[in-house]
Amino acid sequence: MYEEKLKIYDNLVALCPRFERKGKTMPYTSANGYMFSLLNKAGEIGIRFSKEVQKKYLEEFETTLFKSYNSIMHGYVLIPDAMLSDLNILAEYLNESYDYVMSLEPK
Q1: Are 59 and 53 within 8 A, CB to CB?
Q2: All domains in the chain, ordered by first residue
Q3: 97 in Cβ contact with 49 (< 8 Å)
């Protein structure tokens, strides 16, 4: 199960040439000093958005905040499994997240 999700995550990130996947044991993406997506041990994908966009997507995707290591990751939306079948659309959300962290003050 996890290995399948890792392949999906890798394929998703590969669709976005402006950044690359990092992390050996915990796959993630980061830019400008901020992590903006990750794959947790349960094989769930979380993507970071601004507060306004996060609120919109929580309703639109009918999902919850993302959790990793039993902690709620504030700012991250849990991507439902049903959305994993269309990586091109998901790549648009991941690029939107990248644009968001690039708009923040660098860390």
Answers
A1: no
A2: 2-103 (3.30.1460.30)
A3: yes
Q: Compute, in degrees rounded to 10, the torsion defined by CA atoms 64, 11, 94, 26.
A: 60
pLDDT tier for residue 101 given thresholds of 50, 70 and 90 = very high
40 is written with which tokens?
């947790």
Please give the model's pTM, rounded to 2 decimal places: 0.97
In this prediction, residue 56 carries a pLDDT of: 98
**Hey, what are 106's tokens?**
């660098």
Classify 39 as helix, strand or coil: strand
Indicate the DSSP class of residue 81: G
Q: Which residues of 27-56 are buried (b: 16+ CB within 10 A; e: fewer)?
A: bbbbbeebbbbbbbeeebbbbbbbeebbee
